[in-house]
From TrEMBL:
<protein>
    <submittedName>
        <fullName>Trypsin-like peptidase domain-containing protein</fullName>
    </submittedName>
</protein>
<keyword id="KW-0732">Signal</keyword>
<dbReference type="Pfam" id="PF13180">
    <property type="entry name" value="PDZ_2"/>
</dbReference>
<keyword id="KW-0378">Hydrolase</keyword>
<feature type="signal peptide">
    <location>
        <begin position="1"/>
        <end position="27"/>
    </location>
</feature>
<dbReference type="InterPro" id="IPR006311">
    <property type="entry name" value="TAT_signal"/>
</dbReference>
<keyword id="KW-0645">Protease</keyword>
<feature type="domain" description="PDZ">
    <location>
        <begin position="272"/>
        <end position="350"/>
    </location>
</feature>
<dbReference type="InterPro" id="IPR001940">
    <property type="entry name" value="Peptidase_S1C"/>
</dbReference>
<dbReference type="InterPro" id="IPR036034">
    <property type="entry name" value="PDZ_sf"/>
</dbReference>
<dbReference type="InterPro" id="IPR009003">
    <property type="entry name" value="Peptidase_S1_PA"/>
</dbReference>
<dbReference type="Pfam" id="PF13365">
    <property type="entry name" value="Trypsin_2"/>
</dbReference>
<dbReference type="InterPro" id="IPR001478">
    <property type="entry name" value="PDZ"/>
</dbReference>
<dbReference type="InterPro" id="IPR051201">
    <property type="entry name" value="Chloro_Bact_Ser_Proteases"/>
</dbReference>
């Protein structure tokens, strides 16, 4: 398959965000008026010059070592609706990827990123609420190498990372950047096959993430997977074109939590994610602006029902966070845990009320 045809089939899932414009003041100037730093003095043995040369060499060697370690564990997943990536999770042939990569399909063609034979795989289970899924190779080839997974608690802003996968169908591709931020709560679009999930604690990275990278590996310089690249930001002010250097990966802690449950029991039984146990819809005010979430159904015995919320109530706040849409409601709950108590502000028959709700679980 050539690059053009691969590109046309690669699944596109980009997150619309509003870009902020920042002015950056640099110390010194670009006109050459600031004094130049003195050049290092080389000793007779050339130590200073050697030190300058070795640092880039060491970093380059580290990159190459990580690529050699991890890339054989990164696969390309060919679903009939598009291409994505995945990570070999164990030596039994389980592969973890994004739910939006597998979509509604049950069988797939899988090839390792280093270009070996195409293998058949079947879906074990998909968990769209966290945009994760596990597929399993029908036959496990000799020498299949599982990736090493890191510790989410040790991920820090500024760490050098690499994204590995099959962007635009170009297998065995690697991009490099840093961890830009931690703890981001991000909501996916449903456009282009997205799940619409709201995901907490995402890792933001400057490593380029393009269509087809979804489900691949975000790795540190210890050759450990610290996340699964899932979303790349777009700028609505520029026609939804990609916002360079703003990508998001699902943290390794959630990846392992979901994958372990699917592999063990075939489904996720303990999501660890809070819920009101309701179905709602966004309502608008007299100016047609989003103004809250009206309850369409309330699960019997669920969190909202136990707090005596009922159909027709409109939620406007969770704690101090204003709720205007279904997405903002999901985002307000994303950082909370089942069993946690929150104050829900809602309107009923035109009156504003509050209720203390013990959160349930998705």
């Amino acid at each position: 398959m050539d690059a053009h045809s691969s590109r046309s089939r690669a699944r596109r899932l980009l997150l619309p965000l509003t870009a902020a414009v920042c002015a950056i003041a640099l110390a010194g100037g670009c006109s050459g008026t600031s004094p130049a730093a003195p050049a290092p003095e080389a000793s007779a043995s050339g130590t200073a010059q050697g030190a300058v040369q070795r640092a880039p060499d060491d970093l380059e060697n580290a990159y190459q070592a990580v690529i050699n370690d991890v890339l054989p564990s990164v696969v390309q997943i060919d679903a009939s609706e598009g291409l994505g990536s995945g990570i070999v999770y164990d030596d039994k042939g389980h592969i973890v990827t994004n739910a939006h990569v597998v979509g509604d399909e049950k069988t797939f063609k899988v090839s390792v990123a280093t270009g070996e034979a195409v293998l058949d795989a079947s879906l074990v289970s998909s968990y769209p609420e966290q945009d994760l899924a596990v597929v399993k190779l029908d036959e496990v080839p000799d020498g299949l190498r599982a990736a090493k997974f890191g510790d989410a608690e040790k991920v820090e802003v500024g760490q050098i990372v690499m994204a590995m996968g099959s962007p635009l169908g170009l297998s065995s591709s690697v991009t490099q950047g840093i961890v830009s931020a931690l703890g981001r709560t991000v909501s996916e679009s449903r456009a282009g096959g997205g799940t619409g999930a709201t995901i907490a604690n995402m890792v933001q990275t400057s490593a380029a993430i393009n269509p087809g990278n979804s489900g691949g590996a975000l790795v540190n310089l210890d050759s450990q997977v610290i996340g699964i690249p899932t979303l790349a930001a777009t700028d609505p002010q520029m026609g939804d074109s990609a916002a360079p250097g703003i990508g998001f990966a699902i943290p390794v802690s959630m990846v392992k939590t979901v994958a372990d449950q699917i592999i063990k029991g075939g489904k996720v039984t303990d999501s660890g994610r809070a819920a009101l146990n309701i179905t709602g819809r966004t309502v608008v005010d007299d100016d047609y602006r989003p103004a809250g979430v009206a309850l369409v159904s309330v699960e019997r015995g669920g969190a909202a029902a136990d707090a005596v919320l009922r159909i027709g109530d409109t939620i406007t706040k969770i704690g101090d966070t204003t709720v205007t849409t279904i997405t903002s409601l999901s985002e307000a709950l994303a950082g909370d845990k089942p069993g946690q108590k929150v104050t829900v502000t809602y309107t009923r028959d035109g009156d504003s009320r509050t209720a203390e709700v013990t959160l349930g679980e998705i």
